């Protein structure tokens, strides 16, 4: 058996999340069906991070096992020929059997792209979040400092989260502005269910002037989701990449694809190095 890794991009608004469902309208379902056409047998894909309905990915990593002898190009061009337009395989690579897309990952990175203008988006609807009123960028930047490091993120954890522990190591948390778009960047060793959307919701609470920057530190201390602002919309959330140990031999330049915060094309590459 060979273990094959795929790097995948998809528009989450076209699917009901990653994880396979009986109705078949998920990213995993359409990918498994497409890979089956090339492999000639049933496959099960294991991904680095299961995304929710409406959440996008510029670099999702998944693996599957097969006894079919195919050139690596077949797992890209061949699979893409059987996929809907909203999902595409970027590259494939064979790895050792000790690689696992989820459990071998050292870090994951997300970006939330928020359009900050009085009028809601039309062309970018579903691809960016939106907030109509001005936001205090400096206050949100100051608030980000509190969540860097190892913390109990229970305040930002969905009630349905099944993780064994709410403790995560946050490597990167920052907010920037480009034109009328804000971009919220997070990288951590792992994320809880709805964690990024809950972090964005809390930071917007600060940006709107409804709380001081210390609000984030207080939420961490209280460790109570009921005291936190509502979960923000999924529209502008992108899984941008996964970092793995170099020993697995995956292309470093292919492990990160960050959408810039611009009005127009939020999927144009900004960086190819993993933080």
UniProtKB/TrEMBL annotation:
Signal peptide: none annotated. Keywords: Isomerase, tRNA processing. The active site is at residue 52. Residues 8-103, 143-245 form the Pseudouridine synthase I TruA alpha/beta domain. InterPro entries: PsdUridine_synth_cat_dom_sf (IPR020103), PsdUridine_synth_TruA (IPR001406), PsdUridine_synth_TruA_a/b_dom (IPR020097), PsdUridine_synth_TruA_C (IPR020095), TruA/RsuA/RluB/E/F_N (IPR020094). It is an enzyme of class 5 (isomerase). Substrate binds at residue 110. It comes from the Bacteria. Its EC number is 5.4.99.12. It catalyses: uridine(38/39/40) in tRNA = pseudouridine(38/39/40) in tRNA. The keyword Ribosomal protein does not apply. It holds the Pfam family PseudoU_synth_1. Formation of pseudouridine at positions 38, 39 and 40 in the anticodon stem and loop of transfer RNAs. Homodimer. Belongs to the tRNA pseudouridine synthase TruA family. This is tRNA pseudouridine synthase A.
């Amino acid at each position: 058996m060979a273990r094959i890794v795929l790097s995948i991009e998809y528009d989450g608004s076209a699917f009901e999340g990653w994880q396979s469902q009986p109705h078949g309208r998920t990213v995993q379902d359409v990918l498994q069906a497409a890979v089956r056409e090339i492999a000639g047998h049933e496959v099960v894909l294991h991904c680095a991070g299961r995304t929710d309905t409406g959440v996008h990915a510029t670099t999702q990593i998944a693996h599957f096992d097969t006894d079919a002898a195919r050139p690596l190009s077949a797992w890209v061009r061949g699979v893409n020929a059987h996929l809907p337009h909203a999902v595409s395989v970027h590259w494939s690579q064979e790895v050792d059997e000790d690689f696992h897309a989820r459990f071998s990952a050292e870090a994951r990175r997300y970006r939330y792209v928020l359009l900050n203008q009085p009028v809601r988006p039309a062309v970018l609807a579903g691809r960016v979040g939106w907030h109509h009123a001005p936001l205090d960028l400096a206050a949100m930047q100051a608030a980000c400092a509190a969540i860097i490091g190892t913390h109990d993120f229970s305040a930002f954890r969905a009630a349905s989260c099944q993780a064994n522990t709410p403790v995560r190591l946050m490597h990167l948390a920052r907010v920037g502005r480009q034109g009328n778009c804000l971009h919220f960047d997070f990288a951590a060793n792992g994320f809880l269910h709805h964690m990024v959307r809950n972090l964005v919701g809390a930071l917007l609470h600060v940006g709107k002037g409804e709380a001081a920057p210390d609000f984030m530190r207080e939420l961490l201390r209280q460790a109570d989701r009921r005291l936190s602002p509502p979960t923000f919309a999924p529209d502008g959330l992108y899984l941008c990449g996964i970092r793995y140990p170099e020993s697995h031999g995956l292309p470093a330049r292919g492990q990160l694809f960050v959408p810039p915060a611009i009005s127009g094309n939020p999927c144009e590459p900004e960086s190819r190095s993993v933080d």
